[in-house]
Each structure stands twice: as C-alpha cells, then as structure tokens.
Amino acid sequence: MGHVSVMDLVYWRNMRWTGVVFTGLVMCLASLFQLSAITVLSHVCLAIMCTTATLRLYYKLLEVLRWNPGVHPFQSYLDYDGSLTDEETVMLVEEVVLLVAFAVTEIKRLLFIENVIDSIKFVLLLYLLTYVGIATNGLTLIIAAVIAVFSLPLLYKKQQVRIRKVVRAFRAFVKKIRNLFDSLYEMVRPSAAPASKPAPPAAPAIKQKPKSK
C-alpha cells in the first residue's frame, strides 16, 4: 500500500487507515486523563513495536522456509525519504519566523491598544476564554479539535449547499447588526463645530483725483 496523505485521512478516502488513526488519536488523548504523556507514548511505541516485530519474524520464518523471497514487510516505509532539502528547510524556517513575527506584532498591537475596537474585541475574547477554562480543560479541547478535524470537512463536503446558505444568511444578519451599530454611533457621535466663515475681503479704497485749478 502506498503512503496515505493527510487529506486522504481527513476526507475518509481510505476508511481503514482513517479509522486506525482517528481511533488511536482519540484513545491516546483520552488516556492522558489518567496517565502521564511519557507513559502513554511508551505504551504506544511498545504496541507498534510488538506488531512490527511479529510481522518481521513471520516474514523471516517464511524466508527460512523458502516461501518468501526475502522481502522486508516494511521496505516501502524504510525507503521513504522524509528529509528536507536545503531550499525546503530555508523556506520552512522563513515561514515559521514570519508567523512568529506576525503573532508578536498582533499581540503587541492588541495589548498596547493601537486600535480601540480591536482591543475591545480581544478583551471580550479573553473574557469568554476564562469561562471556557472554567468549564473544561485544554485536553478536552484538543480531543474536540481532533473530532472536528475528522468530521467537519466530510460534513461540509456532503452538505456544501446547505452550509453555504446558512453562512450567507449569517453574514447578512451580521451585516445588518453592523449597520445598526454604525447608525447608532453616527447619531451619538458629537457633531463637529462649524468652521467659521472667512471674512469678506475689504473693498479697495477709491482714490480721488486732485481737483484741477
């Protein structure tokens, strides 16, 4: 079997591998409620090595009995080259640096209130996150994120038309609310003082001609 891409797993194009990966991730994350991360990682590696060692010994036995031409069961995975070239490494580092710089700039802009509206939105988000932290923990959110990653793309693919209609209706509702707040802000905002009109220019003095004697 060839290598399975992430998109194949997310969209359930290979049911067997997606089921294995999805079930394994959820079980490993759920076990972290009771066990430490090191314990879970060790048990996962031991389970994988028990499976690979059993298959390796089985193929070796077939090779001894001359029922197998000596093919390694995991040769395709051993031949897979996952290393990065110099150009790919530089591009990856540049993307990470740009992402970190952008995040630092945005956080600095929000914390030091460069834009009042954006900072108010950020404060409201942090306030809502305090309630989320009280109701649940980070591990539960990670499990929910994994379930969402393996379910929402497939749901969107199957219900694309209905979801787009709902999104358009929601955007129209948000636009109406925004227009309402803009109109209220325009009504409450103090009007600017009328600019003083410039004084009309003085009429030029009429020079009198000297009387002739």
Query: What is the H/E string?
Result: HHHHHHHH
Q: Count the beta strands.
A: 0
* Distance linking N and C termini: 125 Å
Beta strand %: under 5%
Stretches where pLDDT is under 50 for at least 5 consecutive residues are none
Rg calculated over all Cα atoms = 34 Å
Structural class, from secondary structure content? mainly alpha
Overall pLDDT metric: 83
Q: The biggest beta sheet, please?
A: none
- Global geometry: elongated
Binned, the helix content reads over 70%
- Count of discrete alpha- or pi-helical segments spanning 4 or more residues: 8
Task: Please explain how this structure is put together.
- The protein is mostly helical.
- 71% of the residues lie in helices and 0% in strands.
- The chain has 8 helices and no strands.
- The chain has helices spanning 6-10, 15-31, 37-64, 75-79, 86-111, 116-135, 138-158, 160-188.
- Helix 2 (15-31) runs antiparallel to helix 7 (138-158).
- The longest helix has 29 residues, at 160-188.
- The mean pLDDT is 83.
List keywords for this structure.
mainly alpha, 213 residues, elongated, single chain
Q: Secondary-structure map with pairings?
A:
Elements: H1 6-10, H2 15-31, H3 37-64, H4 75-79, H5 86-111, H6 116-135, H7 138-158, H8 160-188
Helix pairs in contact: 2-7
How would you concisely characterize the structure shown here?
The protein is mainly α. The protein contains eight helices and no strands.
